[in-house]
Amino acid sequence: MKSKIINTSISELVKQFKKNKLLGMAKKIYIVLLLLPSLFSCDSGRFNNNNPNIPNYQVNMSLNLSLPQYNSLTFAGGTPFVDLSQGARGVVIFNTGAGFNAFDMACPNQAFNICTSPMTITGIDAKCNCDNTTYNLYSGQSPGQQYPMKQYRAEVSGGYLYVTN
Questions:
Q1: pTM
Q2: What whole-number distance in Å separates Cα of residue 83 and Cα of residue 153?
Q3: β-strand pairing of 91-95 with 100-104
């Protein structure tokens, strides 16, 4: 009878130990799952523009969208706005309907010192005059090309469009 009580007590202790061990492990997993999103949600706020063909020039534009010269930017698919004084070869800004895209007008797949002219804008396309490659202003991409157009951050706040890098 004594051995039955001891065996029962030992088996109960083993069950309690396993239960507590699993509970402790579950708590650790829960904590890791809570912290995991914060590790991956950190954003440096920068675009990944690691293009060896285009040097990094400072871009800092502020456009008052209520002014008439920016009227084409107030509706989706409107005429892109170009400022040749910003970026490496100028900056083109385009309203996609879901927001604004701002790209450098330097040919992304040509050496900067060899291809010296900015791309030509026609409708929703930017064409590199050095190799006749056409890039889409909705995505900055061109099929089969290694690098997309160099993109800048474009944010609207209080009726102003801010383009920065």
A1: 0.71
A2: 15
A3: antiparallel
